[in-house]
Amino acid sequence: YGDAGIIEMRAVKAALDPTWKLAPGVLIPNT
Question: Looking at residue 14, what DSSP letter applies?
Answer without folding.
Answer: H
